[in-house]
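The material for today's practical consists of a large collection of protein records. Getting from the letters to the tokens is the skill we practise here. To make this concrete, we reproduce a full record directly below:
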Amino acid sequence: MDRYRFSTTDQYFEEMNFHDCFITSVQAASSDLSVELDYIYISEKHPLNPNAAAKSTDRCRLIFKDVSSVRAELYVDVNPQRPIDIKASEQESKLETRPVETAYLNKMEIETFSMNQSENEKEFILQGIDWKTHEFCGLIVRCEGFIVEWNDFLEDAWYVNFK
């Protein structure tokens, strides 16, 4: 098992940003779910970030702990239309949710990552786009919480000095 220099938990969820980060692997391990990522962004407010700006990390691991359920989903447009055929008043798509294997998400670019908390557990919802097929997909995990591990801080996050 790899050793990492830094480790943080979902306690600092608001100080982490997963937007545009790529999932490279999803694997179940015992009662945990391990998600390998190319990088994430750590806010300058996070206690582990010694920098004055938000930074990206190197490759990292997101580990959902004590998982009670996992759903991997594909969101399919059941009535696709060409843009030229859509009138301004008819621009809504109808999406159908289809279950997929978690390995299907190995190419997902995360667009949103949200957390809902109940009395006994947390629900984490990652949604994004498969960067090869451009299909919308998602991962819903119910668990105790998560840990993120990484080794280094790299360049400024994409949103630093964004206007």
